[in-house]
Design a protein that fits this description.
The protein has 374 residues and is of the alpha/beta class. The chain folds into 2 domains: 191 residues, Rossmann fold; 166 residues, 3-Layer(aba) Sandwich (Rossmann fold), CATH 3.40.50. Helix 2 packs parallel to helix 3 and helix 7 crosses helix 10. The longest helix has 15 residues.
Length: 374
């Protein structure tokens, strides 16, 4: 089959779960001989995930700290995008740049959505409402959309019941995440592993309340924080004299696997997630998870079978479920057993191959009126 050319405009190539998936897919496509180009602001390219040498990186002007320059970036994307078979839009602001580039005959858009209704939660009114409307409007176009979960599908259908989408669940790369039983045997600490993030939707304040409840109930545990944003660690300073806190800054997937394997349980407090891979990664390492019912986790999370699931924004219920695992080793072992089973069903190679085949078989309408169709 003929090789494809694909350009991917990205606001940022840094440490982010969504970025990781895009880079993994781009690497896969490049290794298969497809021509892959990533366009990103010069000051936003600092990947911690591998980027194949076969991928062409093109830079546009730095964004800096002034958010208004993001508008300038969106315009630059339009003119920087060269003619390709496909433009892989992966964030609703870049969708509009990609749409205008398509109208300039620079390629056909495929809209890869890894989360819905997340961005506006980190902003205050009226900007939050503007962002939400802008995102919802991007789903109204007759453009192929690739989603990763049924939850995303339902969110998009609530905006556009005729949306043109394909569901392709995410997965884990083979041989990367697996149980390290030696680490589990050596580690006598009960580490609650948590990925702190500043965005409001990640529920950091909820998790801090959860920790206070666990401490009040005199539970014995060590808190493990995995982050590259060291400034966020100050949020936990007031707990230093009450619990032991460990900071993890993994440099690669092997280090991350060891961290997962040494943990007793993974905790998540998010309000909204398109899929939430860390829980699945932890499960693959034999570490059970206590997670909020934040959307996309329903693809693999089954409450009281392979994990414990609680409603978002309920720190007391998150604390109660963590306490159950801390005090019941047999429950933890049973959850870990079924967690391994479900994680084995989600493979990255299946995601990548299905996405690649989808691109090969796509049929597009060239009529602008049929694309807009709002």
């Amino acid at each position: 089959m003929a090789k494809l050319s694909i350009v991917i405009p990205m606001f940022s190539v840094k440490h982010h779960g969504g970025v990781r998936i895009i880079l993994q897919f781009a690497n896969y496509l490049a290794d298969k001989g497809h021509k892959i180009t990533i366009i990103t602001p010069k000051d936003k390219f600092n990947p911690i995930y591998p980027v194949s040498e076969k991928i062409k990186i093109e830079f546009i002007s730095p964004v800096g700290r002034n958010k208004i320059f993001y508008l300038k970036t969106l315009v630059e994307f339009i003119f920087k995008i060269s003619k390709n078979d496909f433009i892989l839009a992966n964030f609703f602001p870049t969708f509009y740049s990609s749409l205008l580039a398509q109208f300039l005959n620079k390629g056909k858009i495929v809209y890869f959505v890894q989360g819905v209704g997340e961005t506006h939660l980190s902003f205050k009114a009226p900007f939050a409402q503007i962002l939400k409307l802008t995102e919802n409007y991007s789903f109204k176009f007759n453009i192929p959309i690739v989603i990763t979960s049924d939850w995303e599908k339902n969110c998009i259908l609530s905006v556009n019941k005729n949306a043109n989408f394909k569901k392709i669940p995410l997965g884990l790369p083979e041989g990367i995440f697996y149980p390290d039983n030696l680490l589990k045997t050596k580690n006598s600490e009960k580490i609650i592993l948590y990925f702190p993030r500043k965005e409001t939707r990640k529920g950091l304040k909820d998790f801090l309340k959860t920790l206070e409840i666990l401490i009040e109930h005199k539970n014995k545990f060590t808190l493990g924080l995995v982050t590259k944003e060291k400034e966020i660690l100050s949020e936990f300073d007031y707990l230093n004299n009450q619990i032991k806190i460990k900071f993890f800054n993994p440099k690669n997937d092997e280090e991350l696997r060891k961290i997962y394997s040494s943990a007793y349980v993974l905790a998540n407090s998010s309000w909204v997630e398109g899929f939430y891979l860390p829980a699945l990664e932890a499960m693959a390492c034999g570490t059970p998870a206590v997670i909020t019912d934040c959307g996309g986790v329903r693809e693999y999370a089954e409450d009281n079978y392979n994990c414990l699931v609680v409603p978002p924004k309920h720190p007391e219920l998150l604390a109660y479920s963590l306490e159950k695992i801390l005090k019941d080793e047999s429950l933890r072992e049973e959850l870990a057993k079924h967690a391994l089973e479900i994680s084995d069903k989600f493979k990255f190679i299946n995601f990548a191959q299905e996405f690649e085949n989808y691109l090969y078989n796509l049929k597009f309408k060239d009529n602008i009126k049929s694309i807009i169709n709002i």
